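Sat 14:20. Reprocessing the chain from the morning session after the first attempt stalled halfway. Input below, unchanged.
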Amino acid sequence: MVVGFPLVGTLALQPNVTTGDVSSLAGIQNDPNYLQITAPVQPGNSGGPLLDMSGNVIGVVTEKLEPTQSAGTSGEIPENINFAINASVIRTFIQSENIPYTTASSAQLGRSAPDIGDLGKSFTELVQCWQ
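Finished this time. Tokens:
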């Protein structure tokens, strides 16, 4: 599940939750630092958490595959090809900065999507940068 603030200024100013699957354990050109996900993302989802079905953060949303660029290369318009930074990369960064964190088991895989969405909304905040 992805929690974020897609299309700020157009949609509601509350976190939105979308569901999908991890479709690959690698990103563009087999980059192991990323996960490929099918959860729909829009501008404003970047930086939001990617949660497993226990509510654990397993990644941070970064981008979606640019449809027009891919169409020019492959002749096909890609759908729901999105990416998140893998939790292992995030963990390495947090450790390098000596930031305390905790890990959790994914033993509660039976949580409902609404419960996980509520959990994600409880710690996801909108951050905007203005020039």
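The CA atoms of residues 28 and 45 lie 19 Å apart.
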